[in-house]
C-alpha cells in the first residue's frame, strides 16, 4: 500500500493511476477512496488521477483523539497527499464532505489548485437549518458509536437525498450502503463530530469566498434540497464559478450520474487548462439585463 503522512503522523492510504496533469479526488462522508472508481477509470486515460482514504477511514489510520478531526485538518491532509506525491498543483474534485474540504483548500492554499470542483456541498450551510444540522450530526455520531456502522449504514443510506440513487440504480445504491457499513465506528463518529458538525457555514465565509480566484465548478443535484441554495450562493459569490444542476439527481452525483458528471468535469478541466475559464465579468450585473443607457 502507498501512504501519505499527515502533519500529525497519521497515515493516509493513497491510490493513483495514469499520467498527465493531476486530478485529486476527495470523498464524501458515506464513501471512501473506492467511491471514485468511475472517475479514476475514466480520467486516468489522460490524467494522473489520485484518490485517498480520509483519516478515520481504513486502510488509513483511525486516530482515537477526537481533536485529530476538523475541517482545517481535512485541508492539511489534502496538502499532505499532494506533498507526498510531489505534486505542486492539481485539479481538486470533492463530493459533499470532500467538497467542503476542496473549497477550504481553495481558500487557504489556492496556489496548490489548478481548479476546484465542489459537488454536493451545502448540507448544514443554510443558516435557518444550521442548529438542526449540528444537532443531527451529534446524533449520527452517537449512533455510529452505539449501534455501529454495520447496523446503522442502511438507515443512513436511506436519507432523502440518497433515495434518487436507489430509485435509478438499486445495485449501485446497495454498494454505497455496503461501503458505509465497512466504516470504522470510531472513525465515522469522530469525523461526523469534528469535520461535519464542526465546520463553519458557507454563508459565514462570504468575504473570503468572494475573494477567491481559483476556477471552480459547482455541481448539485436538483433533488438534493439542502445543497441547491448553497450552490446558488457559491455561484453568485465565487468570481470564477460555474454552476451545473443535474436533473432528477440527488446527493451522490459521481455514482448516480457518472457519465454526466464525467462529461462536465472533462469539459471544465479542458477549459481551465486552455485558459478559457476566466472570472465572471462583473459588469454583467443584474441591473444590466436589459440596457437602456449608452
TrEMBL record:
Decide whether keyword Hydrolase is in the record. yes
- Could you confirm whether the keyword Transmembrane helix appears in this record? no
Q: Cite the AB hydrolase-1 domain residue spans from the record.
A: 22-258
**Listed InterPro entries:** AB_hydrolase_1 (IPR000073), AB_hydrolase_fold (IPR029058), AB_hydrolase_sf (IPR050266)
Q: Name one Pfam family in it.
A: Abhydrolase_1
Coiled-coil spans in chain: none
Q: Name one GO molecular function term.
A: hydrolase activity
Q: Which UniProt keywords apply?
A: Hydrolase
Question: Record's PANTHER family?
Answer: AB HYDROLASE SUPERFAMILY PROTEIN YCLE, MONOACYLGLYCEROL LIPASE
Q: What is this protein called?
A: Alpha/beta fold hydrolase
| Organism taxonomic ancestry | Bacteria, Pseudomonadati, Pseudomonadota, Alphaproteobacteria, Rhodospirillales
Amino acid at each position: 500500500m502507498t501512504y501519505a503522512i499527515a502533519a500529525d503522523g497519521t497515515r493516509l492510504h493513497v491510490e493513483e493511476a495514469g499520467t498527465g496533469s493531476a486530478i485529486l479526488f476527495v470523498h464524501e462522508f458515506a464513501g471512501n477512496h473506492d467511491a471514485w472508481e468511475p472517475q479514476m477509470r475514466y480520467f486516468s486515460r489522460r490524467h494522473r488521477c489520485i484518490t485517498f482514504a480520509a483519516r478515520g477511514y481504513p486502510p488509513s489510520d483511525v486516530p482515537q483523539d477526537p481533536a485529530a478531526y476538523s475541517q482545517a485538518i481535512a485541508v492539511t491532509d489534502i496538502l499532505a497527499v499532494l506533498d507526498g506525491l510531489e505534486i505542486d498543483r492539481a485539479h481538486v474534485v470533492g463530493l459533499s464532505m470532500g467538497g467542503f474540504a476542496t473549497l477550504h483548500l481553495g481558500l487557504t492554499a489556492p496556489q496548490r489548485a489548478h481548479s476546484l470542483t465542489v459537488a454536493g456541498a451545502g448540507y448544514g450551510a443554510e443558516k435557518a437549518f444550521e442548529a438542526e444540522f449540528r444537532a443531527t450530526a451529534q446524533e449520527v455520531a452517537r449512533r455510529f458509536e452505539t449501534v455501529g456502522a454495520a447496523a446503522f449504514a442502511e438507515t443512513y443510506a436511506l436519507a432523502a437525498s440518497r433515495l434518487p440513487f436507489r430509485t435509478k440504480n438499486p445495485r449501485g445504491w446497495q454498494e454505497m450502503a455496503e461501503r458505509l457499513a465497512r466504516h470504522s465506528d470510531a472513525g465515522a463518529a469522530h469525523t461526523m463530530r469534528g469535520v461535519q458538525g464542526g465546520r463553519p457555514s458557507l454563508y459565514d465565509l462570504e468575504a473570503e469566498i468572494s475573494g477567491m480566484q481559483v476556477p471552480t465548478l459547482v455541481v448539485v443535484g436538483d433533488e438534493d434540497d439542502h445543497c441547491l441554495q448553497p450552490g446558488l450562493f457559491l455561484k453568485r459569490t465565487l468570481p470564477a464559478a460555474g454552476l451545473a444542476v443535474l436533473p432528477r439527481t440527488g446527493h451522490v452525483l459521481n455514482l448516480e450520474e457518472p457519465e454526466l458528471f464525467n462529461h462536465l468535469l472533462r469539459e471544465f478541466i479542458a477549459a481551465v487548462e486552455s485558459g478559457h475559464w476566466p472570472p465572471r465579468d462583473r459588469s454583467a450585473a443584474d441591473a444590466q439585463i436589459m440596457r437602456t443607457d449608452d
